[in-house]
Amino acid sequence: MPSFPASQDDLDVLFDEALSLDETARAAYVERISASRPALGAELRELLDAHLRGLSLLDRPLDLEPLLEGIRDESESTAEARRARRPEDLVGSMCGDLAVVRLIGSGGMGHVYEALQERPRRRVALKVLVDESRAGERFRIEAEALARLDHPNIARVFGAGLQAADAGAAGAGAYSWMAFEHIAEAQTITEYASQQRLGLEDRLRLFVPVARAIQHAHQKGVLHRDLKPANLLVAAGGEGHVKVIDFGLARLSEPLTEEDKTRTRHGELLGTLRYMSPEQCAGDPARVDVRSDVYGLGVVLYELLTGELPYDLEGSSLLHILETIRNTPARDPRALAGSAEPVEVPDEDLTAVILAALEKDPDERTRSAEALADDLERWLRREPVHARRASAFHRVRLLARRRRGLFVSIAMGAAAAVVAVGIITVLFFDNRAKVKRIEAQEDLAARRAAEIGEAREQLSGLQMRLDSYDWLYDRYGFEAAGGVVDEAVSGAGAATTLEEKRAVIELAVEKLRSLTPILGSDLAGAESLANAFMRVGHSIASSWGSRAPESQTALEAYREAARLARQVHAANSDDDSTRRWLARILTDQAEASRKAREFSEGRATIDEAIALVRHDLDEHPKSADVIELLIAALNVRGDLHIDHEPYRQGLVDSQESLQLIDELAKLGAPEAVVLDLRSWAELRIGHWLKREGPDPRGGAEHHRRSRQSRERLLDAALARESTDGVKAVENEASLTLHVFGGNELTAFARLGDQEEVNRTLASLVPRCERLLRTGAATAVLDIVTVLLRMNADRAKDPLAFGASEEALREQWKRLGQDRRAAYASSAREWVSSLEGFGQDMASTRRFLTSVESVGE
Amino acid sequence: MNPASPRDPLFEAVYDELRALAQSKLRAGLGGASLEATAVVHDVWLKLSEDPSKSELDRSHYFATAAQAMRWILVDRARRRRSRSIASVFGEGTDGDLGQEALDPAQAAADAQLLALDEALVRFEAAYPRKAAVVSHRFFAGLSVEDTARATGLSPATVKREWSFARAWLIRELGDKLPQELR
């Protein structure tokens, strides 16, 4: 094809010049030009030839008649309709040298047509981009990448380009297009397998080339992003040869413009959503990589073998689907196999391969399409698969992680309660508080700047996602919008300062509130919203202490969550899990009421929760879940009565808790869980007895028992240090030494019983020394505070604590300066809070000064 | 000069008027005479310039728009017939809105020529936008050199020069594209 002139600036000038000359002079002129600039000369010669040759089309007035053939019969309405620029309009017209014959499908940003090419004669699938201005460049980059793919199981790209549209075509101006191999009368991979009644192994043989095709694409740097059966086609008569279509274009189906919103139908999004990876559901494109495609392959494989999706998404709302994909583990394919599709049940190995591809966390997932294909081939050859080993290991870790989560959540609730009582001051080393303190110190600012910057960046991402709420709502309705809010709330922890976090949470609450009125009777939506409100509440509870203005916001969020949850419960009053969910929300609301000092509301709420749980327990007396729920609710009720008479309610509730814990132990609850619950119950009873006044020694004894339970957990944590890490030990040490040990020491010291104080220390000190050896930095601070407490209580170093103190100083020296500063300032806070209780802090302050000065 | 945009309301009006007029003239029968673009474009100008609601209508803007609209009308028809002809080679119809009468070869040749010209003109426009506007006025609106000069604000001599170069450029470009019998 002739290209643009070599030098456009000159060509027309030279041409005019040449034309003004007579024939001989013109020939000489062209010669002269050619001698110095041969390419330009050649082009000039061509133009002069063309000038003489002429062309009837250009040289005669244009006769419209043949060109307008057919127009006389055309009704006005079709012309009108054509200018409306509907996607159908391209049908019957041309795109480049392709005759567009029918519209096959439409997505968010483009349409797909079937088109015919005369030379070479073939049928193609034509993808046309609707909004050139937004995605044109990206589309062309994708096209180039796709053209590099060359695999028998990937539909080929025949060409791509920019087409100037005519008045009747899809839109004004030019539009981008891409032509692909057309899969004639195609069936999806799942339809084909069903129709052919393929057995398990044949289905795997059908699937493996798909994984290989994806592997090929990944090697060429192309992600598919939208793997689903509809994009895995078998041509009629294709003998089971699957072709992957629609590569890399999933990104183009993301809505971009106002106009797009109206174009994509809800159902289409839902269709795609079911196959999306958890990280895609999180709406974070930066986290989408090859492992997202591995996940997509996993879903297709699952469906191919069972006829079902990995999750029960029947009748689910959009937000619910998002939540399920992100949080619910895949169902065991063995339980579903053979029902929807007459296929053999996968064995344990194959199940492990399938489930490994469906892991939520990309880091835990099968690492590549290649690894998946290899493992399936291994299975077909009856060799051991790799996924199995990995998954067994993973499950053990998962179990451990879940249990820790439980500990922390229970511990946090109780710790907060204790703070409110004012009996014990808990130094709560909140990350944000720490960052804030450090920020205040200029010499440390530079060191922390990077960390803080990173967190801020994360936060502004969340903010942006929240801002996208409005168009999401317009387009997909409240489910999707709620999902974004939810995401923002659960990620609000990324905020480095409370101000930033407050901004995110306020925005989230506002958005959630605007969603509530449009819910109608959508129960799944109500459930999702309730969860989102609950998360807002949790998020606030974990960041702000009680009595902050935020505690009112948290309470309002829980109120709203509870209101929605009651609606859901009213419609499913027989459903156990809904009832328990409501009870949990009410318990949280009651706890929030206490923090916001709305005691009477709190007591009414917790009574409602306890009534629900007791009713549940009558029906399921042996349910460990229900018993745990009741224990949690009783704890909250006890705390609610601390700030208000009668105190005795707390004692009664805690004693009932203790009985329930025994019940749990009999039901075979793990020892760690039982110890944890028991330690808190004993701690509470200790408080009630002291508070009531009748039995301070009894209270101290309960404190001792609570510390002993806790110590066993600390010992277990120390034993697991190599696997669980120092952090886990630090958390446990903080509780054991600080909360439990500290309370016991105080209780006996107040009784003036030095012997018992010594006995307590005899148990705690060796553990302090062990902690120093582990290098658990926070534990060091806990030891400092134990010492401080001893000083405060004038229990002056009765044991040979000097050695420990020396070790402490050593450890203190090794700490970074910022950590020392942070601890010292915390210690000062602690001292001043104790002063508030009228303690003599002189010796404490001396000790503190000596610790602070070490190594400076 | 500003090429008319298809989203321009004037474009819509001109497009409709040109189409309607051409349609009615063809329906009435031409009695052996040919229907030339210049006649249709001028008749529509007369009609629109008499319309009091379009009193602000500027003559040069009108002609630029009319040329663009005429090009789109013609190219649209040609593309649709070409599409139908390819589809018939594959033994199938299209979901398009044209009648299904057989295509005659002269018709197909005229379409191929026009589409080739249109494509060449797209490339030419990219390199020489002002010259392309001259082509548009001269060819699609059928304006004389003088009328083109008035509509584009160029001198007649410049219009002649620009047309001459554009014509040669397009002929050279089409030389490779057109079937032998059409050159």
Short description:
Chain A: InterPro entries: Kinase-like_dom_sf (IPR011009), Prot_kinase_dom (IPR000719), Protein_kinase_ATP_BS (IPR017441), Ser/Thr_kinase_AS (IPR008271), TPR-like_helical_dom_sf (IPR011990). The complex is a heterodimer of chains A (856) and B (183). With 856 residues, chain A is mainly alpha-helical.
The percentage helix of chain A is 55-70%
Number of helices of chain A: 38
Of all chain pairs, the largest interface belongs to: A-B, 62 and 79 residues
- Arithmetic mean pLDDT of chain B: 79
Q: Could you report the average pLDDT of chain A, rounded to the nearest whole number?
A: 72
CATH domain class name of the domain at 189-252 and 267-384 in chain A: Mainly Alpha
Category from helices, strands and their pairing of chain A: mainly alpha
Overall structural class of chain B, as computed from helix and strand content, comes to mainly alpha
- The gross shape of chain B turns out to be globular
CATH superfamily of the domain at 189-252 and 267-384 in chain A: Transferase(Phosphotransferase) domain 1
End-to-end Cα distance of chain B = 32 Å
Instruction: Provide the low-confidence segments of chain B as ranges.
Output: 96-101
Compute the number of helices of chain B.
7
Give the oligomeric state: heterodimer
User: What characteristic shape of chain A results from the CA principal axes?
Assistant: elongated
Give a description of the structure:
The complex is a heterodimer of chains A (856) and B (183). Chain A is elongated and about 125 Å long. In chain A, α9 packs antiparallel against α17. The N terminus of chain A is likely disordered. Chain A starts with 7 loop residues before the first helix and ends with a helix. Chain A is mainly alpha-helical. In chain A, the strands form two sheets. Chain A has a six-stranded antiparallel beta sheet, with helices on one face. Chain B has one domain. Chain B is 70% helix and 0% strand. In chain B, α1 packs across α3 and α4 packs across α7. Chain B starts with 8 loop residues before the first helix and ends in an 8-residue tail after the last helix. At the A-B interface, α1, α3, α4, α5 and α6 of A face α1, α2, α3, α4 and α5 of B.
